[in-house]
Request: fold
Amino acid sequence: MLTLTENASTIVKTLTAQAVDSPEAGLRISGSETGDTSFAVTVTPAPDAHDQVITDGDARVFVEETASQALNDKVLDAELDEQGAVHFQLGLQPQ
Reply:
């Protein structure tokens, strides 16, 4: 199952709180329909019916069904650049 770093958890909580006024809100990761390894990230008020829901404290991440298998052994990290833009990175979970 996808895990989150402390930075990612903090940024996900901040993004969802700023964008959607709902306790069910979270960051949704969906796979590409072309089958490549790119993913789309959006803030959404609630998970879709088949999303895998990952919680880390108050942070909620929804992983779309087709993306969940590809992200199963990954860790999500995030950082802010000097202009305040969020950058997400995926890495392998430690063994």
About this structure: The two ends are 13 Å apart (CA to CA). The CA atoms of residues 1 and 54 lie 8 Å apart.
